[in-house]
Amino acid sequence: MAFSPNSYYWKGLRDGAPFVLVAGPFGMLFGVLATEAGLDLTETMVLTATVFAGAAQLTALQLLQENAPIFIILASALAVNLRMAMYSASLTPYLGGAPLWQRAFAAYLIVDQSYACSIVRFETEPDLSISQRMRYYLGSVTLVTLCWYSFTFVGALLGAQIPKSWALDFALPIAFLAMAMPMLRTPAHVAAALVSVIVALLGAGLPYNLGLMLAGLAGMMTGARVEVQLRKKGTWT
């Protein structure tokens, strides 16, 4: 792998660097909440390393505290992470020709930040080789990954010593807004986002975060339906 300042790894590293401003507080927040939920340092870090999906980890943690059934916990975490399957499908035309071990590594590292950076770069420069794409992809997620691990560790280590006035939970909604808004490029995207927001708000009072699961399903169904209708009319772009 080339590490020159002009390599695609370094381009990805630079493009992904701003996201550490979100990954740091988000990781620290998870570490603190995990400690408050009764997980020790080792359990917190094992959960972070094996799942590597902040929103799903927070969802599972919240439901664990509510003593929700294990099926609900797994289903909710899966629902939150369904977007990763869509990310993966979207990236397959660009990275699908890479060796199996590289694809497996990339699958583990797929997060909102790496996808947001990579899909824009790949669509902007469609003539990149698979090697260049993979280098860019890995570069875009390097700092986020290191930041997530390290700040989760700090949060779990310090636990309740971190004052609530820091309001670390600001990082999650800001991160998703910053990444989602520029990606609403078609009517199908907009319809899916709008329906999911409405259903999530209407279902906010449902137990075990079921409203979130329903919102995700409703959004995906709406987006797919709008896309089909637009394709039939010949206006889909």
UniProtKB/TrEMBL annotation:
Its main location: membrane. It is found in: Cell membrane. The chain crosses the membrane at residues 12-33, 136-159, 190-215. It is a multi-pass membrane protein. Keywords: Cell membrane, Membrane, Transmembrane, Transmembrane helix, Transport. InterPro entries: Brnchd-chn_aa_trnsp_permease. Pfam families: AzlC (PF03591). GO terms for biological process: L-valine transmembrane transport. It comes from the Bacteria. The keyword Transmembrane applies. One of its GO terms (cellular component) is plasma membrane. PANTHER family: INNER MEMBRANE PROTEIN YGAZ (PTHR34979). Belongs to the AzlC family. This is Branched-chain amino acid ABC transporter permease.
